[in-house]
Predict the structure of SESN2 protein.
Amino acid sequence: QDYTWEDHGYSLINRLYPDVGQLLDEKFQVVYSLTYNSLAMHRGVDTPVLRRAIWNYVHCVFGIRYDDYDYGEVNQLLERSLKVYIKTVACYPEKTTKQIYTQFWRHVKHSEKVHINLLLLEARMQAALLYALRAVTSY
């Protein structure tokens, strides 16, 4: 059974804490939609597919999968070093090192790497909220 933020989490958290759902949703949307329309040396790049791949990979790491998403995109867009970095930061933040940070996507700017960090941390927060809210619903 699917339990998504849009369909279930948002409405439940708004019932428990009025207006908090809206604030969290805005926070998720702001981070998800951030873009310079560039990637490394390329300008005029729209990156929603990449941002969605990162978000869904983080959810996948935590056991959340969506039937309507083609996870082949994750393997096409996220190289192994980026996947290692994402999994380390999301699951074992205390093991994150400068070496892991510098090994993925060496050609991108640090500001782009910061955006990747923001994406994965917000996706992680949303995954944790989904598990907690589903537990509340079950209880």
Q: What stands out?
A: The chain has seven helices and two strands. Residues 8-78+109-138 form one domain.
